[in-house]
């Protein structure tokens, strides 16, 4: 316990899924947490996003550990809102910020979604990361840590470019955004290294969250069925990984986030961390 004792952490996409898991894990290890989430749906994204109630619950989970939580409904595409709400949250928690976890993301899959899905995926998954990090930079000092969320899907797409198909424009936007998150994070790390500020990217494979457990994702994994269910998709999920599992859990990603947020990783920067059950070994 106490691996990030008294650090202040910003997490986007914190109301549920990976972000909520990260918030609770870091609070259990001694951090105060700023939790941001959009808390409303995006039209091109055909599964529901987090709700205000879920964000409130996530904040209460942090507070149950004895640490402080500040929550706000923030769309990471809106730099001015990020800047404003972050300033308020940092002031409430004493004026410092030590860790940034740029985690918010969507995946608007489907060949039938409009071209706007490309823009929405790109804007949330890449521009949102940039907005989050750049809003936080003025507060970061020596020893701070920036952690971004990429995706194995982005690494696979970069090594084996594929066109069109059932991914649709939203899937293409997602994959391209995650590729850019990877290169952006490593380039940023080089710029921040002289200030002893670290930046690393985590690439999960299938993760047991609302994004994976959604009708568009079921259809992606079971295109042979008109209306596949989760049980149908579970038969196909393991094909993504070399290890015989359908997915990893949010807590598996949180373990790496905690390491990168802590001083245990004080000399680790510009690195990729693949939590992928061997998925990249298959590509």
From TrEMBL:
Keywords: NAD, Oxidoreductase. It holds the Pfam family adh_short_C2. CDD domains: SDR_c. GO terms for molecular function: oxidoreductase activity, acting on NAD(P)H, oxygen as acceptor. Gene3D superfamilies: NAD(P)-binding Rossmann-like Domain. It comes from the Bacteria. PANTHER family: BENZIL REDUCTASE, CHAIN DEHYDROGENASE, PUTATIVE (AFU_ORTHOLOGUE AFUA_4G08710)-RELATED. Belongs to the short-chain dehydrogenases/reductases (SDR) family. This is Carveol dehydrogenase. It comes from Mycobacterium europaeum.
């Amino acid at each position: 316990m106490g691996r990030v004792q008294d650090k202040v952490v910003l997490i986007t996409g914190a109301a549920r899924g990976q972000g909520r898991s990260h918030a609770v894990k870091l609070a259990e290890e001694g951090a105060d947490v700023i939790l941001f989430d959009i808390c409303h749906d995006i039209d091109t994204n055909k599964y529901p996003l987090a709700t205000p109630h879920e964000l409130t619950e996530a904040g209460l989970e942090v507070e149950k550990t004895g640490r402080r939580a500040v929550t706000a409904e923030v769309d990471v595409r809106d730099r001015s809102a990020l800047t404003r709400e972050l300033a308020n949250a940092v002031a409430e928690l004493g004026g410092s910020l030590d860790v940034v976890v740029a985690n918010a993301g969507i995946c608007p899959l489907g060949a039938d979604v409009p071209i706007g899905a490309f823009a929405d995926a790109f804007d949330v998954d890449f521009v949102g990361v940039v907005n989050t990090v750049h809003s936080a930079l003025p507060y970061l000092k020596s020893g701070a840590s920036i952690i971004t969320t990429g995706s194995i899907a982005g690494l696979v797409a970069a090594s084996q470019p594929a066109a069109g198909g059932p991914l649709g424009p939203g899937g293409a936007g997602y994959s391209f955004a995650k590729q850019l998150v990877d290169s952006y994070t490593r380039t940023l790390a080089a710029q921040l290294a002289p200030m002893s500020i670290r930046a690393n990217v985590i690439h999960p494979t299938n993760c047991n969250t609302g994004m994976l457990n959604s009708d568009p994702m079921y259809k992606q994994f079971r295109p042979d069925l008109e209306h596949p269910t989760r049980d149908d998709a579970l038969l196909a999920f393991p094909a993504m990984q070399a290890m015989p599992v359908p997915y990893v859990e949010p807590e598996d990603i949180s373990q790496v986030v905690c390491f990168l947020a802590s001083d245990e990783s004080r000399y680790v920067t510009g690195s990729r961390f693949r939590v992928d059950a061997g998925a990249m070994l298959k590509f």
